[in-house]
Design a protein that fits this description.
The protein is of the alpha+beta class and about 450 residues long. Helices cover about 40% and strands about 20% of the residues.
Length: about 450
């Protein structure tokens, strides 16, 4: 009987060396920008107690938690009646006390509360780790994926929001992706809902308005009616839907429209301040006030941020906002925070589609020494050690194999430079340096290799 071909769980992936080098390029770029702004790394366990995770993501989120069976005899506390078909939730709570983390935010909140006596506030942290969701796998949606979160808690200053816009601008600038940074505020959305007399329908209103570009004004108004808005309310929201112009023009018009609402003017003041600070920070990307932006409405209390690639039809590649009570769920109320999360998988797809991955990041090895055996092999090993000592990643081909095979190895592993030291070169203290990208090669003294490798 032949052995079964191995496989991996649905919704998970293996990454080849090429993919890992590209992913590490993304992670390292993001990490370097985070650290420039004083954010410190933390890590939390892959597993959290289920009591930490349950009830934090709504009913749907609870269903998507991967639960970990208790070690040992996990059925020891279970009665026969617990094993009935309709008792899955109760059974799960008895056989598992832990679950894989669903996101990085709830573990971060738990971390802040647990370590509050050791933390200096404001606390600026970043976290780049995988998360797990028992979702239905489909294109672009995985059961295991990485999140790259950056948050500051314990400060109400809007400098934090503006800095996060600058962080996004710098990350995507370094990656070579043109982006549009969209900004909104939960308080403005509350003001709009209040203006039209439907404070309870804030989500319905924003979901409908969000489709304006796709389906047009008439269909948006039809959808608003379907969602329970009366004709008067729909008439009142028209000036908001039709808001055009620069950020300043939009804010000016909004100030008139929302002047008598409770939350609206506060949101306008916050957005105005953030845009003013962003102006001082010389953000290169376009920053737009977008009233249709309503991500995480149950969660965000102030600024809402979303970043989209300008040259690729793709969803959000980064987003976040201000939340006022992150730690309240663990008994420490009143700690405000603001943060954004970078979608590594989507960023990878954008870079791939726009052909922005350079060959330089295809391999970790920069130089390969060909192996001719004997004295030439010894000299190649010595030379490789010297290059590594000055920080150049270098390999010596381990076997005295045919030259074609050694060059094929360099090609397959996308190694940009090959050094050839045959007997003739060794006796003359020379080597041949071949550029594997262009195919050009030149003879030079061995000590000069470093001057030609770029």
């Amino acid at each position: 009987m032949s052995a079964q071909k191995p496989s991996i769980p649905k919704g998970t992936r293996d990454f080849s060396p090429l993919e890992m080098n590209r992913r590490n390029y993304i992670f390292n770029t993001i990490r370097s920008v985070f650290e420039q702004f004083g954010y410190q790394p933390i890590e939390t366990p892959a597993m959290e107690n289920l009591s930490t995770l349950l009830g934090k993501y709504g009913e749907e989120g609870d269903k998507l938690l991967f639960k970990v069976l208790n070690s040992g005899d996990f059925l020891s506390g279970v009665n026969e009646s617990d094993l009935t078909k309709d008792n899955a939730a109760a059974l799960a709570s008895k056989v598992s006390e832990k679950g894989l983390r669903y996101d990085l935010t709830v573990p971060f909140a738990r971390y802040v509360v647990q370590h509050r006596n050791d933390i200096t506030f404001p606390f600026k942290r970043y976290q780049i780790q995988p998360v797990w969701r028992a979702d239905r796998p489909q294109k672009g949606r995985y059961r295991e994926f990485y999140q790259c979160d950056v948050d500051v808690v314990g400060s109400d200053s809007l400098i934090n929001e503006a800095e996060l816009l600058l962080i996004a601008d710098q990350v995507f600038g370094k990656l070579g992706i043109n982006v549009i940074i969209k900004l909104n505020n939960r308080k403005i959305l509350s003001g709009i809902a209040e203006l039209i007399g439907h404070a309870d329908k804030i989500t319905d209103i924003t979901v409908a308005i969000d489709k304006l570009d796709k389906i047009g004004l008439e269909k948006v108004n039809e959808e608003l009616a379907e969602r329970g808005l009366d004709a008067d309310a729909i008439a009142r929201i028209q000036p908001v839907i039709n808001l055009q112009g620069s950020n300043d023009e939009k804010l000016s018009k909004l100030s008139e429209l929302l002047i008598n609402t409770f939350e609206g003017p506060k949101g306008i003041a916050e957005v105005t301040e953030i845009l003013s600070l962003a102006g001082i920070m010389n953000i290169n990307a376009s920053v737009e006030l977008d009233l249709t932006l309503a991500r995480g409405l149950n969660y965000y209390t102030g600024a809402i941020i979303e970043v989209k690639a300008a040259d690729v039809a793709m969803g959000s590649i980064c987003g976040g906002g201000r939340y006022d009570n992150l730690t309240g769920i663990f008994g420490l109320p009143g700690v405000s925070g603001v943060g954004i999360s970078f979608g590594a998988d989507r960023i990878y797809d954008v870079l791939n589609e726009l052909n922005l991955f350079t060959t330089a990041i295809a391999s970790t090895t920069k130089v390969l020494f060909v192996n001719f055996g004997g004295q030439e092999e010894k000299l190649s090993i010595e030379m490789a050690s010297k290059l590594r000592a000055i920080g150049i990643n270098t390999e010596v081909y381990p076997d005295n194999a045919k030259l074609k095979k050694q060059f094929s190895y360099a090609d397959s592993n996308m190694i940009p430079w090959v050094v050839i030291i045959g007997e003739q070169e060794r006796l003359a203290n020379n080597c041949i340096l071949k550029n594997m990208t262009t195919g050009e090669q030149s003879t030079m003294p061995t000590g000069e290799i470093i001057n030609h490798i770029v």
